[in-house]
Amino acid sequence: SFPERNELYVESALDLSEKAARRVLDRAGVGPEEVGAIFFVSTTGLSTPSLDSALIFRLGLSTHVRRVPVWGLGCAGGSAGLALAAEHARLYPERPVLLVGAELCGLTFQRGDLSKSNLIATSLFSDGAAAAIIGPGEGLELLGGHSTTWPATEDVMGWEIVQTGFKVKISRSIPAIVSKRIRENLLAACESAGVSYRELRHFLTHPGGAKVLDAFEDALGLGRGGLEIPREILRERGNMSSVTVLFVLERFLERRAYETGEFGVVSALGPGFSAEHVFFRC
């Protein structure tokens, strides 16, 4: 039932979020008491109070930390969360920001539903959690974000609420939308952020699926296989909704296949139907 699934979501998402947050705090050398704000991104379950409230006490954050739960952005949530957290960090540079995302797509599996969308979603989507610290120090410089929601596209992706919980809605038109709109959209995003499209060297896209990645590569003129890291993450981890771009970003940083000063973009598509971009400088 929906209550049973949601109880599992609250329990497991909280555990995974705590693990991811502790790892990133340790890597960054940031004490929990130093964090000024916590942004929590998720779309695969419900909780009020939002799970960031419990993370405060599990992690030992200040009881005065600013809480910003972000729900309903689906696969676009990771990129949007980075942009929102970066904006907060620029406004309040004295305290680092903790971004945490957790998705349990497996709990949305609808047993007995033999529709093509349910079978594809079951084979494509997976579970995961990730976290990032945004603030002064070493790492990528986040330059700004750009959001777009296209009209009359709300049926492209989202949830249908049924008695057993969230039933996925996903249209096969997504690759066509990418092919038709993403280049023009990214050009507009570059202009709004003051970044030259010609200067972009690194495209860290959310791997929504193999055909979506094909469409991104074609639209951006990258050549087939140009989005190597997103394809690796999709193959190894599946589509973990919002947190997948954070896995892509981590792999990119581990590879260090970039030069200081190069520009890149983290991009994702989500319900709305919408696009979220956040630009960075290495």
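Above is the first protein from milestone M3; the second protein from the same milestone is given next.
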Amino acid sequence: MDQWAEIRRRVLVEGVSQRQIQRETGLHHATLKKILANPEPPGYRRTKGRRKPVVGPFLERIHEILRADQQVHRKQRHTAMRIWERLRKEHGYTGQYNGVKLAVRAWRMGSQEAFVPLRHDPAHGQVDFGKVLVRLAGVEVPATMFVATLPFSDALFVQVYPRECQEAFHAGHVAWFEWLGGVPIRISYDNLKLAVRTIVGGRGKDESHEFTRLRSYHCFAAHFCRVRRPNEKGHVETLVKFARQNFLVPIPEVADFATLNTWLREQCTADLQRQLRGQAKPKGELVADERPHFLPLPTQRFEARRVETTRASSLALVRFDRNDYSVPTRWAHHPVTVIGGIDAVRIVAQDQVVATHPRCWARAQVCFEPVHYLALLERKPGAFDFARPLAGWQLPESVQVLRRRLERDLGHRGTREFIRVLRLLEHCGMADL
């Protein structure tokens, strides 16, 4: 550059002849002409593409393989090395691997999709699920993470549930709306089966009954992204990873999911104090700007639950979500309705709740309530000591003393009398008994 500037000064300012400069420097006249025409070196400028005499005849075949790969799962697509091996074996290619590698790289760079930055309006939300691990009572178990965000303010809300299901989907929405103090006017989703039954034209159109019930309570509009186009809600896709790495690393160890979710709500509230790059205000102030656009919360609180109709078996058991729950034996063989929530399962028969159990999230488990079988055991007292629903039932010492005295005084009739006493638990608690 020093020589370039000096030559231009001597010729253009001092009037030294170009021939004199050529004699002194040995430059070609074309090079000297370029120096005088440009204030700085223009760099190498190619007028036509470089010839590829070896790989050139095979470029169309390489592109054909790569185009076919777009219809195959990404884990079974061709590498540049595999394409080079196929060209040598099937088409007699004699060139080196590097030529094929550069051709594959150039094609992939030119075929990558570009995206348009989107504008995010106030009170527009996005929802997604993500997989996580939690440690309950020292045992590591898989769980699902409900993630919701308002892209306008970047407000993030996270809850963790045992499994991705209808109840978790509903409970996440209810908790999110209550945390915000209102309802976004429009929410974007994947085409998840919890919300849509069929996909029309690449988007979910036929909503599930339960999702429509959720929308009817809260009156928000739903937007379903095209199939395999997560970029349409890319904001929440990014925040799923952010929430997992920032809130759930290391793996949290908690007593139950309720404790974990309370802590997560506190973390989401604290996160509102952050101010992101390019934003004039912290997240919390931007949410306050959005709040006038929110829809009001419903006057009647939405119940997050799944409803199924079934029939109680001869063992007075009702199957729900791959687990069995007991009902009073008088309802055996009867049709019942099961209402499954996040924390409890209620069983309804003839418009009355006949049984309530804590929700079991394991598989193939049986949840017994011993009191449900006392009426039947009163007629079959001989099965009292062998009844599976009563296994492990810890009775107070005073109750056990009563049994011994009744059986001592009344013989075999004492067991039946004892069961009649226990049946008072159908109407009172153990302390009162």
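Note on the second protein: Residues 97-111 form the longest helix (15 residues).
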